[in-house]
Design goal:
Blueprint lengths: L3 E5 L3 E7 L2 E9 L3 H14 L5 E8 L5 E5 L9 H10 L5 E8 L6 H20 L1 E14 L1 H13 L3 E7 L3 E7 L4 H11 L5 E11 L3
Helix pairs in contact: 2-3
Amino acid sequence: MQEQYRTVARAGVHESEINRSRFLCSLAPAATEEEAQDFVARVRKEHPTASHNCFAYVIGADASVQKASDDGEPGGTAGVPMLQMLMRREMRYVVAVVTRYYGGVKLGAGGLIRAYGGVVGEALDALGTLTRQRFRLATIHVDHQRAGKLENDLRATGRDVREVRYAEAVTLEIGLPDGDVEAFTAWLADTTAGTATLELGGEAYGDATA
């Protein structure tokens, strides 16, 4: 698994005008290829009179799925530069649709490549990106007496506390970077006087802390 990846912070639209043509870049996070395709279909439905609705998407932390479409523009002048921009920015789990309303001035192949790639880059800058870090899921079991202080200590040190459950004992679900497991185990034993237990689970991605 990749240690981390970047994705778009939120869905949104960025518009540019180039030689009288309007270019609207719609960006969104997409967890699956199906989600990406649904987003493309939705944008196309919103802009049925547009000259072109070109798209590119990258799915998977390792970029295992990459697709692009020129949607009627000359081959390789729209979808590919859009995809290249996403890959250059190391974006994952993201879909981009660039809607073009032709303004009467031909841009030529080079102009189209710059326009389609450029508007995706501008949209990424405008909407912002975030980094997702690979974590090991871990479960802490601790007694009620120590649970409150432990939870506060975890949050104060920037730990990713995902869930807290109260029963006979208190269970805290957290996310740990792999490299921190050994040091964290020692810290937990010291903080709880050896009374807490730690179970390591599977892996997931969460927001990376600065």
